[in-house]
Amino acid sequence: MTTTVNSASVRAQTPFINAPLTDFSHEANRQAQVAALQQVKSELGQTYPLIIGGKKIMSAHTFASLNPSQPDQIIGHFARASVEQAEEAMQAAAQAFETWKRVPAQERAHYLFAAAELLRQRRFLMNAWMIYEVGKSWVEADADTAEAIDFMEFYAREMLRLAEKQPVVQIEGEDNELVYIPLGVGAVIPPWNFPCAIMVGMTSASFVTGNTVVLKPASTSPAIAAQFMHILEEVGLPAGVVNFLTGSGSIIGDVLVESPQTRFIAFTGSRDVGLRINELAARPQKGQIWIKRTILEMGGKDAIVVDETADLDAAATGIVTSAFGFQGQKCSAGSRAIIVESVYDQVVQKVVAKAKQLTMGDVTLPTTYMGPVVDASAQKKISEYIEIGKSEGSLLLGGKHHEPGYFIEPTIIGDVNAHARIAQEEIFGPVLAIIKAQDFDDALQIANSTEYGLTGALFSRDEQRIERARAEFHVGNLYFNRKCTGAFVGAQPFGGFNMSGTDSKAGGRDYLLLFTQAKSITTKR
Ligand code: NAP
Ligand code: MG
Predict the structure, then answer these.
(1) Which residue in 3, 57, 158, 173 is deepest, having the highest Cβ count within 10 Å?
(2) Which of 268, 294, 475, 477 to mutate to test the pocket of ligand 1 (most atoms within 8 A of CB)?
(3) Within this chain, do residues 274 and 373 fall inside the same structural domain, yes or no?
């Protein structure tokens, strides 16, 4: 650890900058990605253990993670943890907490700097795991890995900042200080759609602040989490600080949430599961002596508003990228385009023309823009929404699915009523609902008319309207004249309002505070 600690100390002195995205127009980068895809292909199909208190535990009961582009290709076999094993994992985390909470913040941060460095070295490999396991395109996978690196670099520095002397008022005759201490044992429950970034972000925020966790990855992306566990092991993170528990969320999820040892739950995923966690966590269990904290980031029904003053080409590009990047499977996806009447036909025509150009297919090729949706049930659910959409509006593009693999064409449905189901419910696939507004006021009102409030964008050149939207467009992440996806760590702290979650602003200066409690200490002189 000494050498990594030393090099990490040097890193800590430098300001945070976002990891640059890989330029795949460079032949060397393309070759590196192809080589990594080859290497990962040769590693597919292995069996992965649970990791509890540093012990690797094989299970007789396993489930397979599949390649959604080619479902007969098995990415890996994973232990299906039992309720007892979930309890053991909580116990191991509780035990490790007793020592980990005393490890100085600087040392904890240095594990993250070291892990970030290893992930930088393995960037193309991590991209390849995502290309195979969840069907990301090269560019989407690379941005996901970059974001994971950013989270670690950012949270490590944030921890160092929180460990500094905090400003409090000094009162005559007393010394006053305030320190941030960890909460305890956390359950970390990430989604599969940013299988590297969000999983790494929630886990690293938890442990850098001195907590220990049970990490339960999404069942469609456990191999990616297993790669991160390798990294944590290699940087020498002590056993039990992060325990790795694969298995069905509907079976072991409740155990992790309800355990009296759980102090907090960091969850990112769907609205319904988030609300269930919130409810279960609120009930004190026998022996529990704290109120559980929940950090919940949930769904979205994000809108892009276009008015008649906008650059219509830029707006159409923003709409298409936001709607169809990673097959629309982003909480930030622009699944509604709200366009004022006077430019409606023009914008729709441009959007459809641009969406027609998108390539769909083999994501192991750098030229492919869209891959499959994540699994059979996603394909079924999205297809059902497309059928609903056909009765709620007019199908302008796509609508079909393709096998083998869980492919769904980029689908655009026009003339959708603002209250239609496809304009209100999160579909989480490549389906764009286009809504006609009478004017800007009407458009803004429609934008705010769902129960969500995650991201939103306005394309306009009218300064007064931009000012109004700044105040009235009720979303956690608001963008003007650009797409509504692709927030950068540090620059655009991410999290939404209303049913989109607890607005926990991942990648922002407030985030680590959610994983700590503040202790005020006064000494009488
Ligand atoms: P999901 O079905 O809610 O699953 C998320 C995680 O919860 C998975 O690890 C899942 O495990 C687990 N889980 C399922 N049932 C559970 C239960 N009863 N108790 C505890 N955990 C349980 O969501 P998803 O399909 O993975 O992800 C898509 C959703 O995430 C979308 O709604 C999207 O908008 C949202 N999202 C939000 C943000 C944000 O920042 N606001 C970011 C990304 C994604 P299994 O896989 O084993 O079921
Ligand atoms: Mg799911």
Answers:
(1) 158
(2) 268
(3) no
Task: Return the closest-CA partner of residue 212 out of 192, 232, 234, 191.
Answer: 232
Q: Check pocket membership of 273 for ligand 1, CB cut-off 6 A.
A: yes
Determine, yes or no, domain membership for 114. Answer: yes
354 and 265 inside one domain: no
Residue 27 lies in a domain: no
Number of domains in the chain: 2
Provide the greatest CA pair distance for the chain.
Answer: 76
Q: The CATH number of the domain where 409 resides is what?
A: 3.40.309.10
Q: Tell whether 466 is covered by a domain.
A: yes
Residue 112 and residue 246 in one domain: yes
**Best CA proximity match to 229, nearest among 207, 210, 250:** 207
> What's residue 12's pLDDT?
82
Question: Which listed ligand is nearest to 511 at the C-alpha?
Answer: 1
In angstroms, the Cα distances linking 484 to 239, 312, 361, 475 are 40, 16, 24, 11
289 and 310 share one domain:
no
Question: Which ligand has its closest atom nearest to the C-alpha of 216?
Answer: 1
For residue 206, what are the domain limits?
A: 2-15+46-70+104-298+504-524
Q: Output the CA 72–ligand 1 centroid distance in Å.
A: 24
377 C-beta closer than 6 A to ligand 1: no
- Per DSSP, 20 falls in state P
Say yes or no: 389 and 434 in one domain. Answer: yes
Residues 195 and 338 reside in one and the same domain: no
Q: What is the pTM of this model?
A: 0.98
Q: What is the CATH number of the domain that holds 143?
A: 3.40.605.10
Residue 219 is assigned to a structural domain of this protein: yes
Nearest to 232 by CA among 215, 251, 249: 215
Ligand 1 atom with least separation from CA of 274 = 3
Which residue's C-alpha comes closest to atom 11 of ligand 1? Answer: 249
Residue 269 CA, ligand 1 centroid: distance in Å: 3
Same domain as 309, residue 238: no
How many Å lie between the centroid of ligand 1 and the Cα of residue 272? 9
Q: Which atom of ligand 1 is nearest to the CA of 378?
A: 25
User: What is d(CA 517, CA 245) in angstroms, rounded to the nearest whole number?
Assistant: 26
Quick one: which atom of ligand 1 is closest to the CA of 331?
A: 34
Active site residue 297: yes
Task: Indicate which atom in ligand 1 lies nearest the CA of residue 276.
Answer: 18
Query: Pick the catalytic residue: 88, 140, 153, 331?
Result: 331
Query: Order of strands across the sheet with 477-480?
Result: 394-397, 411-414, 431-437, 334-340, 302-306, 455-459, 477-480
Closest CA to 452 of 488, 431, 428, 481: 428
Q: Is 201 in the pocket of ligand 1 (CB under 6 A)?
A: no
Residue 47: what pLDDT?
98
Task: Give the residue, by CA position, lying nearest to ligand 1 atom 37.
Answer: 298
Yes or no: say if 447 and 305 are a contact pair by the CB < 8 Å rule: yes
